[in-house]
Amino acid sequence: MDAAKLNQLKHFVEQCKNNPSLLKDPSLSFFKDYLESLGGKIPCESPRNTKFEVESDDDDEGLDAEEEESEPVEEKGYESDEIVESDIELDGDVVEADNDPPQKMGDSSVEVTEESRDASQSAKGQAMEAISEGKFEEAIEHLTQAISLNPTSAIMYATRASVYIKMKKPNEAIRDANAALEINPDSAKGYKSRGIARSMLGQWGEAAKDLHLASTIDYDEEISAVLKKVEPNAHKIEEHRRKYDRLRKEKEDRKNERERQRRRAAAQAAYEKAKKKEHSSSTRRPGGMPGGFPGGMPGGFPGAGGMPGDFPGAGGMPGGFPGAGGMPGGFPGAGGMPGGFPGAGGMPGGMPGGIDMSKILNDPELMAAFKDPEVMAALQDVMKNPANIAKHQANPKVAPIITKMMGKFGGSQ
Q: How far apart (Å, rounded) are the C-alpha atoms in residues 147 and 137?
C-alpha cells in the first residue's frame, strides 16, 4: 500500500481514538459496521463538529483535502418539504352532497306562446300549493312541467331550486340556480338559492359572495339570517388561507436565500481553489531552476566540487568536453569548441565560481527550455558524461540550448 495512504489512515485512526464521535458521521457508517463486526464497541458520546485533518507528504493531496473541507454542504432537514395546515374550527352544519342524476331541464329552443306561458303559471300555482302542504316531490313535478312549458323563465328555475333546498339536495338546487342566472344575471332569487345551497355543502366563501349579491339586488330577512351563519366561517377560511399563503411565501423566500448563499459559497470556494492551485504551482520549485536540477544551484556554481545535486564529481568535468580540437563536427554554426569549455583541457576544481547565474535565470529561452523534459534529459545526460554531447548535436531542440549555455559560461570567464 502507498506509504502516504498508510500515513493518512494512521492519522485518521488516531483522530477516532481521540474523538470516537467521529464514527457517528453517516458517511463513515461502513467503517463503524466493520469495527462492530469484529466485536468492537463504539463509545456513546455526543457528536462534535470536528474536521478531519489529513497529513500528506504530497502538496497536491493536501490541497485536495482543503478543497473538500471548503466544499459547501447543502443543508438537509432544515425545513419540512410541506407546510401542514391546521384544521379550522367552523360553526354550522353541512349536508352530504346529493349525487342524483341531473334533473330535467327545459329546452331553450322551444317557442313560448301565450297559451304555454299561461299553462306554465298554472303549473307553478299547483306547485306552490304542494309546497305549502309539505309535498315537495309533487311540487318538483309541477315545477318541472312549468319549466318545460316556459323554459325562458328564470323564476321557474329559481323556485324549483328553493324546493330542492327544502329537500336537502344542494347540488340540484345549484344546477337550477345556475340556469336561472344564465337567463337573468340579476335574479336575486337565483343568487339566494345558490348561496344557501353552497352553505349547505360547506362552501362558505362562495356562499357568502352569492348571498351578498342577492342582498344587494333584493334584501330580505332570510338572506340576512343565513349570512350571520355563513360570514364568520367565510372570514375564518379567508384568514386561514392568507396565513398559509404568507407562510409558504416566507418559506420559499428562505429557500431562495439559502440557494443564493449556497451559490455564493460555491463561487467563493471555486475562486479559493483556483487561487490555491495557482499559488501552489508558482511556489512548488524546490530550489534552483524550475523543473530542473534537483538540489538547486545556491550561490552560483561552486568553485570546487562541481554542481551539487546532479552535476557529477568533485573536480568538475575532468578533461573538459571531448577533444582538444573542439567537439567533433562542432555545434551548427559554432565551428567547434576548441578545448571544450573555457579553461582548455578541462575544469579542474569544477566550474569557475564567478559564473553569473542571473544570466541563465533571466534568459526566457533557457528558462522555458528547462521546463521541457526532453531538453532536461539531454542536459543531464551530457553532465553525467560529457562524451554524450555528440549524441545530441543533431537535435534541433537540444543543440541550440547547449550552445547558448556554453556561451553563458564562456562570457563569465
A: 15
Residues 6 or more apart in contact with residue 312 via CB below 8 angstroms: 306, 383, 384
Looking up cell 313560448 gives: 112
Q: Where are the domains of the chain?
A: 3-69, 92-278, 303-413
Range in 67-81, 201-215, 328-342 with the lowest mean pLDDT: 328-342
Fill in the DSSP letter of residue 298. Answer: T
Q: What is the DSSP string of 188-233?
A: HHHHHHHHHHHHHTT-HHHHHHHHHHHHHHS--HHHHHHHHHHHHH
Indicate the DSSP class of residue 101. Answer: P
Residue 251, CA distances (Å) to 77, 248, 335 in order: 13, 5, 83
CATH of 92-278 given 1.25.40.10, 1.10.540.10, 3.30.450.20, 2.60.40.1180: 1.25.40.10
**pLDDT digit string, tens, across residues 41-59:** 776 654 444 444 434 444 4
- Residues in the chain, overall count: 413
- Going by the DSSP 8-state scheme, the letter that residue 120 receives in this structure is H
DSSP single-letter state for residue 345: S
List, as one string, the DSSP characters of 5-23: HHHHHHHHHHHHHH-GGGG
DSSP notation for 108-164: TTSPPPHHHHHHHHHHHHHHHHHHHTT-HHHHHHHHHHHHHH-TT-HHHHHHHHHHH
Residue 321 has pLDDT above 80, yes or no: no
All three cell numbers of 174: 345549484
- For 376, half-sphere exposure in the C-beta direction (CA atoms, 13 angstrom radius) is 14
**Closest C-alpha among 151, 142, 152 to residue 122:** 142
Least confident piece of the model among 112-126, 279-293, 294-308, 355-369? 294-308
Residues 200, 226 contacting (CB under 8 angstroms) = no
Per CATH, 92-278 and 303-413 having the same topology is answered no
**Domain 303-413 classification at class level:** mainly alpha
